[in-house]
Amino acid sequence: MYNLVMKDLKLGISPWFLALPLFTGALMLIPGWVYFLVPMYFCFITVPNMFGGFKSQHDLLFSTMMPVTKKDIVKARFAVIVVLELLHLLIAMIFGAFTLRLYPNLTYIFFAPHPGFWGLCFVMLAIFNLILLPMYYKTAYKYGAATTVSSTAAILFALAVQWAGIRIAALNDIFYGPGTENTGLQLSILLAGVLVFTAFTLIAYRVSARRFLKVEII
């Protein structure tokens, strides 16, 4: 599987998409911006272009000609996507930490980049993975509908939690009020988000692998 992962990273993915997290992460420095958009650029830009590249390169046919199992092919692709997602989030978190120090007295309309916010970002990407990859591996070829539906689901989640954070008093306290200073609470939300991300991605892998086993490669 390691060789399959390296194949994707070295041959299947443009170096631009490995550098993109630096550019999108720098958007965290914009004071009071809609920071949910930063990880969403992975959904909007990286995934459709990456899958389009694999399709144009006939990567599916090439991979199935190698002495590997279909499960290994799916597992390697999941690994690549998760690595890129974590890269986007990690770099954005670093920039977000600078933002909190640069603008300590800023009044935020949208979520500030506290740890709890990143927990919500993990959940958003978990939903994205749960929809994208099982849909894609029905054919392992057609990606348009899968990227559209999964990106839409991520957007709806972000809109819903942002609305709830503003309108619901208890959540407003957590993400705007005294709860932002409660390190234990913020880290708990972050940990919960990571656990949801892990669980949803594992479920997506199992469903995707099972569907891909039924795909006939011509």
Topology:
Layout: H1 2-12, H2 15-25, H3 37-56, H4 59-64, H5 70-102, H6 115-136, H7 144-167, H8 169-175, H9 183-213
Helix pairs in contact: 1-5, 2-3, 2-5, 3-5, 3-7, 5-6, 5-9, 6-7, 6-9, 7-8
Average of the residue pLDDT scores: 93
- The share of residues in extended strands comes to under 5%
Low-confidence stretches: none
The H-and-E topology, N to C, reads as HHHHHHHHH
Q: What's the number of structural domains?
A: 1
Q: What structural category arises from helix and sheet content?
A: mainly alpha
Q: Tell me roughly what share of residues is in helical segments.
A: over 70%
What would you say this structure looks like, in words?
By secondary structure, the protein is an all-alpha fold. It has one domain (2-213). 76% of the residues lie in helices and 0% in strands. The protein has nine helices and no strands. Helix 2 packs parallel to helix 5 (70-102), helix 3 packs antiparallel against helix 5 (70-102) and helix 6 runs antiparallel to helix 7. The protein is elongated. The relative contact order is 0.14. The mean pLDDT is 93.
Pick out its properties:
9 helices, 218 residues, mainly alpha, single chain
Short characterization:
This protein is mainly alpha-helical and 218 residues long. It has one domain.
